[in-house]
């Protein structure tokens, strides 16, 4: 019997005709930096252009284009209320550069675009995390606050209360990362 790419454990449909995961990782980092640096310097729109190009590259290279788009939209829909909660309870605020609108409660739309990028990262670059939910929680609990901190250091936000921000972000990402990973896996099934 012929095995499909999804029949092996911990493997998702590979984007870009089987391109190595490191290409997706680099594309993710470039898009994240373009958006965050752009937002910090009044250039959120060009940064979002880079993000859009990377998302299109992911979708175009995907073996399951419709599913790739659907999971990206789903992540954005999940990310929006989580970001609203961040703005209410966490000790930081995003920078709204004025070139793009906010989506209520001080959440710039460029932030929601990063959720679509995260969906691509979990589907392709971080595929090795599949079924490893405890590890995903630990990585999310550290990487989430570190990512926000990096964005703040670039100027895309500011702390109101750094210890509160780190604590709430760590808890949120510790819970959200394995759930998002599970959703990504379930969507590929």
Given the helix and strand composition, which structural class is it? Answer: mainly alpha
> Uncertain regions: pLDDT < 50 for 5+ in a row?
1-13
Main-sheet strand order equals 1-2
Per DSSP, what share of the residues sits in E-state strands of 2 or more residues? under 5%
Summarize the biggest pleated sheet. Answer: 2 strands, antiparallel
Mean pLDDT reading: 86
What gyration radius follows from the Cα positions, in whole Å? 16 Å
The helical percent reads 55-70%
The domain tally reads 1
State the order of secondary-structure elements, H for helix, E for strand: HHHEHHEH
Number of strands: 2
How far apart, in Å, are the first and last alpha carbons?
18 Å
Count of alpha/pi helices: 6
Task: Give short descriptive properties of this protein.
globular; 6 helices; mainly alpha; single chain; two-stranded antiparallel ribbon; 189 residues
Entry summary:
With 189 residues, the protein is mostly helical. It contains six helices and two strands, in the order αααβααβα.
What does this structure look like?
With 189 residues, the chain is mainly alpha-helical. It has one domain. 68% of the residues lie in helices and 3% in strands. The chain is built from six helices and two strands, in the order αααβααβα. It has helices spanning 21-40, 44-61, 65-89, 109-125, 133-154, 162-188, and strands at 92-94, 157-159. Helix 2 runs antiparallel to helix 3 (65-89). The longest helix has 27 residues, at 162-188. It is globular and about 40 Å long.
